[in-house]
Amino acid sequence: MKILVCVKQVPDMESRFRPDAAGVWYAETDLAFRVNEYDEYAIEQAVLLKEQLGGEPEITLLSVGPDRVVEAIKKGLAMGADRAVHVRDPEAHLKDPFQIASIIAAYAKGEAFGLIFTGMQSLDRGSTQVGVAVAEALGYPCVTTVVAFEYADGTVTVKRELEGGVKGTVRLKAPALITCQLGLNQPRYPTLPNIMKAKKKEVSVIPVEQLLQQEARLVPAQFSAPAKKGGGVILEGEVADQVDRLIGILRDKTAVLR
To answer: Which of 18, 38, 73, 232 has the fewest C-beta atoms lying within 10 Å of its C-beta?
Structure first.
C-alpha cells in the first residue's frame, strides 16, 4: 500500500501581515513560514500507520507552492516520510481550493494510493475544502475532522468530531481519504539523525503546468488591515456606580440618550 500526505506551508500566525504592492495579498518580506499545524497530524498518522504495518507502506509527501515550501517538505521527510513531490507553483496562494485539489488529484490518479491524509484545514485560508475535493475527484470515500484512527485488513475505523463535543464512528474500506483534526495524535519532533537522513531522500519537482491547465477561479480583489478603532472602556466598582458611569457615557458620547 502507498500513502500520500498533502502538506501546505503557511505563514506563522504570529507574523505581522501587510498587503503587497498591489494590495491583493500579504507581502512575504519578513514573514516566517511553518508547516500547517493540521498537516503535522496527517504526517504523524501516516508514520504511525507505517510503523504499525512493519514499515511496508511507502509515504509520499506532496506540497504545492514556490521554492520555499521545500523547508516544509524537509520537515515531513525528517518525521518519517519516504519521498516527496514538490509541485512548483509561485502563484499557489492565488489559486482557489478547487484548483489546488485538482493539482493533487491529477498527480494522485497515476499512483494508486491506498490512503491519503490531509489536514482538516489550513491556518491561512481555513476553507476545509481541499481534502474533500480531492476525494471527489478521485472517487475515494472521505471522512473529515478525524480525531481517532485505526486500520486493520484494509478497513479504516475512525472517530470524527461533531458539534457539541459529540463524536461519530465511521468505518470504510481503502482506498480512502482522511482529513486530520487537532487531537488525533502528538506529532513527533524530528531527531538530528532523521534530519540528516531526510537530506538524502528523493524530492521530485513537477511544474504546476503539467498538472493544471485552468485559469484561476477566484482572485482576491483586495487585502487590507481592519480599520483602527478606539480602545474600549472597562467599568469597575460597585454595580450602582457602573450604571451611573454607563448612563453618563451613553448620554455624553453617543446619541443613544439625550
So the answer is: 232
The whole-model pTM stands at: 0.81
Number of residues in the chain: 258
Q: Which helix (H) or strand (E) holds 115?
A: strand 115-119
**Residue 147, in any domain of the structure:** yes
The beta-strand segments (E) located in 111-252 are 115-119, 142-152, 155-161, 167-173, 176-180, 203-207
Which amino acid is located at 184 in the chain?
A: L
Q: How far apart are the first and last CA of the chain?
A: 74
How many domains does one find in the chain?
A: 1
61-110 pLDDT tens trace: 999 999 999 999 999 999 999 999 999 998 888 788 889 999 999 999 98
Domain interval for residue 90: 2-210
- Would 161 be classed as within a structural domain? yes
